[in-house]
Amino acid sequence: LLLLLLLAVLSLLAPGAVAYGCDTHSFVSATAVLEENTCQGLELGHAAAPSEKDLEEFAAALRHNTQLRHLEIENTAIPEHFFHTLGEVLSQRTAPLHSLELNRVGMDEQGVLALGVFLHSEVGRALRKMDLSHNSIADRGLEEIAKTLANSMLHELEVEDNQIGNVGVEELARAVSDSKLREIDLNYNRGITEDAVLLLLQASESSTLTEIDVKGCGLSPDGARRLLQKQAALTRHVKLDLDKNLVRRPLDKVSRRKNKAKDWTESDVQIWVRNIHPSLASYAPLFEDNGITGDVLVRLTDDDLRDLVPNPVHRKRLASEIRGLLTSDEL
């Protein structure tokens, strides 16, 4: 057995063996990695501005490489015209790419449109994850992505910290039911409000979606409450992250002084339960069904909780959280 393990290790160290993660910091070194054709994952970060020759050689090496499955370029300014080249090159590859991450590369919606050549191609349909966070993509860019979803295997889409608003999210919502998407990250797009997120949440009912992140967007307290109520009414669980929006929810420090626990409504209590931990979210409707307001919540006994929460671990966590309310400034 030890001999077999030793042989396995040696095979990984042998020339020509395929590695997963290869970090580079220039287009020249990234090109060399691609030409060696021994890496499944290439990360190019914090690179200096490339010359036209550097870009041409990188594109040629990327086109002919057969091992690469994950490509990540971050914190590197890419000339706008190169997104067209990148889209064409990726669409011409014979080997599929499973993950594409282009973070902080100066991409706008024109860059996404240029990538559309790849996303609409046969090889592009094999993509599982795409991360275009921290760029300048507006609604039109998200609309272009939405058009490709029906024939795509994309499971995870991240467009955090761009310039996306409701129009793009609404188009995405219309495309979700025909997609394979499981996770959508829309965090820190300030133009997104609860109206568009509600459409996306409604569409998740007939989709494969399991998580929607809209942290730091433009949701109002009433809008967040509506979304949580809709989430509770879904027939399938979809994780919803509403943290750090423009106006904070009852449990955030800014609003604690204005909305003390003893003054919480039944809906406020339900939101509080959901925010403790995803594993406790299923109990939130029980609290509302039993008419538990904030005043009742802080006076619940262990016997009361035993009737509401049969799982002893969950019951202990809830009891601890209630004690936390009693010892904090929530009252």
Radius of gyration: 24 Å
- The stretches of 5 or more residues where confidence is low (pLDDT under 50) are 7-15, 246-259
Strand content: 5-15%
Average pLDDT number:
86
Shape: elongated
SSE-based structural type: alpha/beta
Number of helices: 15
How far is it from the N-terminal to the C-terminal residue, by CA? 63 Å
The helical percent reads: 40-55%
How many strand elements? Answer: 9
Q: Describe the main β-sheet briefly.
A: 9 strands, parallel
Can you describe what's shown?
The chain is an alpha/beta fold. The chain has 15 helices and 9 strands. The protein has helices at residues 2-13, 27-36, 52-64, 80-92, 109-119, 139-148, 166-176, 194-204, 221-233, 253-256, 266-276, 284-289, 294-297, 302-308, 312-326, and strands at residues 19-24, 39-45, 70-74, 99-103, 129-131, 156-158, 183-185, 211-213, 239-241. Strands 1-2-3-4-5-6-7-8-9 form a 9-stranded parallel β-sheet, with helices on one face. Helix 7 links the parallel strand 6 (156-158) and strand 7. Helix 4 runs parallel beside helix 5, helix 8 packs parallel to helix 9 (221-233) and helix 14 (302-308) crosses helix 15. The longest helix has 15 residues, at 312-326. The radius of gyration is 24 Å and the shape is elongated. It starts with a helix and ends in a 5-residue tail after the last helix. Residues 7-15 and 246-259 have low confidence and may be disordered.
Helix and strand arrangement:
Blueprint: H1 2-13, E1 19-24, H2 27-36, E2 39-45, H3 52-64, E3 70-74, H4 80-92, E4 99-103, H5 109-119, E5 129-131, H6 139-148, E6 156-158, H7 166-176, E7 183-185, H8 194-204, E8 211-213, H9 221-233, E9 239-241, H10 253-256, H11 266-276, H12 284-289, H13 294-297, H14 302-308, H15 312-326
